Amino acid sequence: MRSLLTPTMCLAMALTGCSASVTVDDRATSTETTVATTETELVIPRETVEDDIANSLEESVGQRPDAVECPGDLSARQGESIRCVLHAGPDRLGVAATVTSASVQGGQLDYHLDVKVDEKPTG
Questions:
Q1: Distance (Å, rounded) from C-alpha 100 to C-alpha 48?
Q2: What predicted TM-score, i.e. pTM, was given to this entire model?
Q3: Distance from the CA of 27 to the CA of which of 18, 44, 104, 119 falls in 20 to 30 A?
Q4: Which residues are registered as beta bridge partners of 3?
Q5: Residues 6+ apart with CB under 8 A from 12
Q6: HEC letters along the chain
């Protein structure tokens, strides 16, 4: 018996996660800043989180979502998470990204996101 997976079903599969290494730049006026910094915490910008989720999905299921929308930046601390919306054709699926590890070494922020897509489209 042969079974078929629709794009929505593929995107709804749980993902193992994605890793990223980005430069920490504390110059607020720099246009190349990929990670925002404050005196007390590092923040992964919304656009970077959205790209990381899309890249992770593309790598895991072979299909890039039409779009990923997150409500804001994500604190780069272990255990921090954010809920986003994934657009796949006419479907909208919830997706959670959780920081499972983060460290700064030599001006580089290395972090790992665990990405999980909801099984059912949102209403």
A1: 16
A2: 0.69
A3: 18
A4: none
A5: 93, 117, 118, 119, 120
A6: CCCCCCHHHHHCCCCCCEEEEEEECCCCCCCCCCEEECCCCEEECHHHHHHHHHHHHHHHHCCCCCEEECCCCEECCCCCEEEEEEEECCEEEEEEEEEEEEEEECCEEEEEEEEEEEEEECC
Task: Write down the pLDDT at residue 40.
Answer: 55
pLDDT in tens, 90-109: 999 999 999 999 888 887 88
| Tokens read off for 5 | 């997976």
CA-based radius of gyration for the chain: 15
Whether 42 contacts 102, CB under 8 Å: yes
Mean local confidence (pLDDT), 65-71: 97
Upper half-sphere CA count for residue 38 (Cβ side, 13 Å) = 9
HSE-CB at 111 with a 13 A cutoff on CA atoms is: 30
The pLDDT score that the predictor gives to residue 39 is 46
Yes or no: say if 93 and 107 are a contact pair by the CB < 8 Å rule: no
Q: Which amino acid is at 110?
A: D
